[in-house]
Specification:
Layout: H1 30-58, H2 63-92, H3 94-117, H4 140-160, H5 163-170, H6 172-175, H7 181-211, H8 213-233, H9 247-260, H10 304-307, H11 323-349, H12 352-360, E1 365-366, E2 370-371, H13 379-404, H14 412-444, H15 455-479, H16 485-514, H17 532-557, H18 561-574
Length: 575
């Protein structure tokens, strides 16, 4: 409502997520939250890693049918976290959403396990035939049960992914007291996630392939149960933010109100004075920010008698919005350019098919008895991330702080840029190694290069993706209001999904252009006949261009909140 009115209303809206300032929250809650995420990652990664094998062996699907089903499942898995984050921020609440997702994940993995235990729940084994065609196909009911289990798991995982923002809620009160609290939290969250994926892609996948699906999926049921148990055990200690309104509706209201008030004129300072902007009751008066000034028209009160009710509420919320509504939409719009650079960087990480194809043409032996599976070659990336996070948190930051004599903290955007550079270098290394491998294969007739040649490129790729991803999550959560933390924590995942589509588009374009005139495409089924090294050089060039664009967007963005907060903490500690 208007500043200076009799009932004392002013400024931006009351916090949309009311957090109790009690002894709850803090580092005590993190083992429960990170444990929930770790068990979830192990279950989801193990299921996804071997799903195509399971569909082909047990449901007798061909490669095309099984892949299409997995594509649809992957699409749902990528979209669900964003939708459920919006629900958590606007209506359900993050605690309830994670709990709901944990239960659904347990039900989904349990159903998937039951389908392996009951013979009638899946197609009967193929009978011998002279034409090598399996006559046993899945019935409609069997496919329905399978798809139901996959949907339950996807929706459950989507709800559980809001745990990143929920953990940040527990540390909000500590952020202003110590430098790098959020950075440390996001780093260790990411490290535990990477470690859990390594466990899934090695131990759990081995159990599925060598000890049977019944035992393999049964272990996943246990992990899903432990994920839910871990989260609910911490319930008495959590700070539980409560949502207040629909964010999506609020965004649309700001856009509509800005358009309907387009005839209003505002001064160069954004508005004439704070008395003509609409605020909620009992809040400190502030002016709308100067970025995206045209949106400020949505919160200007022309005529208090006409625009406001007797208790200070907007008569028409589609013509008059609160300042906090306007600032929420601005926060989302402002980060989109930087978010796009992260999405484009995800193109580099979507080279798994090439990784397997390249690994199958190399000597994968390490020593006389150990042979690395072709599908596990990207483990180098996850191992490098874990090593870096431990070294950065325990060695680099303490050493740097000791040298300069004060707490050292690298800003989120600096780390995002460093991650982009490392990702670019990984593609350069990938192109160079593939050129060497192909040259040796064509010249000598065989590729005797050791698999260890690809370790540096995947180590760089893992470091770049990890450093940039951690910084992205921290950046979004620091820039967005608390009411949007769930959305903020899933923006990087949405960027990864967009990156997958972009990678597919880039590959299709290069395949079409390089194969014109009857020439062999760079992306050939036979890796020695194609030129994947050329393809990787193109992607490396795109990565460098993406980094330059990031620098432009970084300068245009101006100072970000995490830099301001850390500067204030350093000054306070210095005093």
């Amino acid at each position: 409502m208007i500043k200076g009115s009799e009932n004392g209303g002013s400024a931006i809206a009351m916090p949309l997520l009311q957090i109790s300032h009690s002894s709850k929250g803090g580092f005590t809650t993190l083992p429960f939250i990170i444990g929930n995420s770790a068990f979830m990652n192990m279950a989801s990664s193990a299921v996804a890693a071997d799903m195509i094998v399971y569909l082909m062996r047990e449901y007798h699907m061909d490669m095309a049918s099984g892949s299409n089903l997995i594509y649809f499942w992957s699409a749902l898995t990528n979209v669900a976290p964003v939708i459920e984050a919006c629900m958590a921020d606007s209506s359900v609440g993050r605690f309830r959403m994670i709990g709901f997702g944990s239960v659904l994940c347990f039900l989904g993995t349990t159903l998937l396990w039951v389908l392996t235990v009951i013979p009638q729940a899946r197609p009967s084994p193929c009978s011998e035939s002279t034409d090598n065609i399996c006559r046993s196909e899945a019935t409609t009911l069997q496919l329905f049960l399978l798809c139901t289990s996959l949907v339950l798991m996807s929706v459950g995982w989507g709800g559980m992914k809001t745990s990143l923002a929920f953990g940040a809620d527990q540390l909000k009160n500590l952020q202003t007291k110590a430098v790098g609290v959020m950075e440390g939290y996001f780093s260790w969250y990411y490290a535990v996630s990477a470690l859990s994926i390594i466990v899934a892609m090695t131990g759990l996948v081995y159990i599925q392939e060598n000890m049977g699906w019944e035992l393999g999926f049964g272990v996943l049921v246990v992990f899903s149960f432990l994920a839910a148990l871990s989260f609910f055990l911490g319930s008495p200690f959590y700070v539980k933010p409560k949502p207040k309104k629909s964010l999506i509706t609020g965004f649309i209201q700001v856009i509509v109100a800005s358009y309907r008030n387009r005839h209003l004129h505002i001064s160069s300072s954004g508005q004439k004075d704070s008395s003509v902007s609409y605020h909620s009751q009992g809040t400190k008066p502030i002016l709308p920010t100067q970025t995206l000034r045209f949106l400020n028209k949505a919160c200007i009160v022309e005529d208090p008698q006409r625009d406001l009710t007797w208790d200070g509420r907007a008569v028409d919320p589609w013509r008059l919005c609160r300042v906090d509504q306007v600032e929420e939409l601005k926060a989302l719009i402002r980060v989109i350019p930087i978010w796009m650079t992260g999405a484009i960087m995800s193109i580099n990480a979507n080279q798994s098919s090439f990784a397997v194809l390249q690994a199958t043409s190399m000597d994968r032996h390490i020593g006389p008895n150990l042979e690395i599976p072709a599908g596990s070659v990207t483990i180098f990336a996850f191992v490098s991330v874990i090593i870096w996070i431990v070294a950065y948190d325990r060695l680099i930051i303490p050493a740097a702080s000791g040298i300069v004599g004060k707490p050292v903290h690298f800003s989120t955007r600096s780390r995002m840029g460093f991650g982009l550079v490392l990702s670019f270098l990984s593609m350069v290394a990938m192109a160079a190694v593939e050129g060497m491998r192909r040259g040796a294969a064509v010249k000598e007739g065989s590729a005797a290069m050791s698999i260890l040649w690809v370790a540096p490129q995947y180590a760089l790729l893992g470091l770049g993706t990890g450093i940039n991803g951690i910084a992205q999550n921290e950046f979004y959560i620091s820039e967005f209001p608390e009411s949007m933390s769930g959305i903020a924590s899933n923006l990087s995942d949405l960027g990864a999904a967009v990156g997958t589509l972009l990678a597919s588009m880039v590959m299709s374009i290069i395949n079409e252009l390089s194969g014109r005139g009857g020439q062999q495409s760079w992306i050939a089924s036979n890796i020695n006949e194609g030129h994947y090294d050329y393809f990787n050089w193109v992607v490396a060039g795109l990565s460098m261009l993406n980094f330059v664009v990031f620098l432009v967007f970084r300068k245009a963005f101006g100072p970000c909140r995490d830099e301001v907060i850390d500067a204030a903490v350093v000054v306070e500690e210095g005093d």
